[in-house]
DNA sequence: CGACGCTTTGACCCGTTTCAACAATGGTGG
DNA sequence: CCACCATTGTTGAAACGGGTCAAAGCGTCG
């Protein structure tokens, strides 16, 4: 029924920005391979480094993530015209490239958060957030060993995890009792990084840190 | 303590990409205003169209969203070096601009999903997803009135919402009983769009549709 | 027809929420 | 320097949303 495989994409782009005739033509003439994907077939797997972008032409497609315990959390549903893995975007000055990557990382973090609130139980959910904040802080040099400033309230932590304050409190106290963290007066120390990561089912890949920063 | 306000940013960027001396210099010499933000003060409000980007220099900052019922859901915690609203990125060819925007919309959708799984109860959560899919499909012309193909199973719907299949089923049947939708054999019809939006606490703004598409 | 995948239903259970009260902390003005 | 007040953290008891397990309908397609 669709005239061109790229028709939905053009239609979507024109709906969010005005395209000149040249630009529309540029899109329509992009080098293109049409691939048939079976139902339930994975297009890109976690860890792949695809060299091409992809556009959904027909049908539905979704991104998802599996936790070690097997629960699956879908991130997003994609319909024709969507570009679920908009990776390659050349022709940019290298500075813009870095900023661009940052945005992609940001989006990756969003996805991880969806998994966090959607699929992890309270204890792991909170632990996961601790792991993330710790690593993000370390990248910018704001940690001393396993200690860092954590100027947030338990109520805010609750909002960040989609839990109630009361339950956050109980979970945090549990984490203390289990010797995972210390946290008093806005200063937090991770006492058992391995244990924290384990309980959080934390995999730092999504933060896209350099090899140096990821080591721990 | 920090040498330059932009130091954390440079540090972060160098950790995710290699910057040439010129590029680093380009960042360091960006026109810059340092602003002091009080605790709990909003920097950018929903609906604002900021003309500047912002970089966190010191302290913590978070993005959040309030549902009509008052529950607050935080999207992300930002630390120094972060650019929570990387809006302005000039000097791109206009095509790249459109793609760029698309990515931003994508990220906006992620945030909405975080809110969805973190803060909405089951019924509203599912209803919200129906609203989103419907509008996304309509933008690319894949709806007929309020009818569209919805080739997904309730189990997949469960994964997308962080609920169990059983509970999704009960909620969907409730939605049918309430006259909000019909859904059989992969074809879905929204029978009461206003009611669906209301129950979902759905605000289409985050999809960034054109004025035409947003009307409904 | 039989098998398989999806939907529907029931019963029971448990994580989390809610409400409520109280303790600890820290900041403010007199 | 203390009295006061507003946050924040902690705890208990009761209620509930949603999960789990299990089995039964129901289409559909080879």
Question: How would you describe what is shown here?
Answer:
2 copies of one chain form a homodimer. Chain A is α+β, with helices and mostly antiparallel strands and 216 residues long. Helices cover 44% and strands 12% of the residues of chain A. Chain A has helices at residues 7-16, 21-28, 94-119, 122-139, 154-161, 165-177, 193-200, 211-214; strands at residues 61-66, 72-78, 143-144, 147-149, 181-184, 187-190. In chain A, the strands form 2 sheets. The first copy, chain A, has a 4-stranded antiparallel beta sheet with strand order 3-4-6-5. A two-stranded antiparallel sheet of chain A has the order 1-2. Chain A is elongated and about 65 Å long. The N and C termini of chain A lie far apart (53 Å). The relative contact order of chain A is 0.10. The mean pLDDT of chain A is 83. The interface between A and B is large, with 75 and 75 residues. Chain A binds a DNA duplex (30 and 30 nucleotides) through α6.
Features of the shown structure:
8 helices, two-stranded antiparallel sheet, elongated, alpha+beta, 6 strands, 44% helix, 216 residues, homodimer
Largest interface: A-B, 75 and 75 residues
Range of strand content of chain A = 5-15%
- N/C terminus separation of chain A: 53 Å
Uncertain residue ranges of chain A: none
Shape of chain A: elongated
What's the helix count of chain A?
8
Number of strands of chain A: 6
Q: What integer value in Å does the Rg of chain A equal?
A: 21 Å
Largest sheet of chain A: 4 strands, antiparallel
Oligomer kind: homodimer
